[in-house]
Description:
Elements: H1 7-16, H2 21-41, E1 47-50, H3 59-65, E2 68-73, H4 76-85, E3 93-97, E4 111-116, H5 126-139, E5 140-149, H6 153-165, H7 177-186, E6 189-196, E7 204-211
Parallel strand pairs: 1-2, 1-4, 2-3, 4-5
Antiparallel strand pairs: 5-7, 6-7
Amino acid sequence: MQDDFTKEGVKKYATTRYKKADQRYVHRREDTILRSYMKRASVYPGLILDIPCGYGRFIPLLHEYGSGVIGSDQSLSMVGHMLKQHPCSPRKLWGVVGDAVRGMPFRTEAFTGVVSIRLFQHLHTRSERETALEEFARLTQHFVILSYYRRNALHTAQRRLRRWLKPTQTTINMVTHSEFLEEIHNAGLECLSEKAVLKGMHAHHIALLHKLEV
Length: 214
């Protein structure tokens, strides 16, 4: 598992990622949607898995609705920064290096809910996506809050233009709504609600998923 971030790199990323006005607006929209879903889905008290936790952007929000949070990321530097920035009692916040596609080191139904923001669009094959979804379904007792990029012609054109103006190695995967519904169903999940972060302008959607009874 490769860690692409150094401690200084994470610190810089955390202070610059949502600094611009448009980025701050996107963060507020994500925060609002996530908060509404947590209010609807949370079974308190409960343990929440935040994967990928990044530098801990949503840790304070998740602490409002769970008795404890485990933040997990592929990057040890990210996990370390998250723990340092959000000091809590040992019973309230933990950090674990992990990868949903490779499997997480937790027992089945260890969590009340799983939150995964800005991971799904980086999984480029159906096999990877369904493996991650199956792992989320295994880990949760009740709900999954998951963001994904729903295929959007305007956003696709914008990304092509930006890549032409400023080449980058970062690639984003978009799926149709029907593909998304089929993949979550195959993993034992159903969609209760879905909201666009920037309706019509951006592909980013956040969905509230419920674990199906076996």
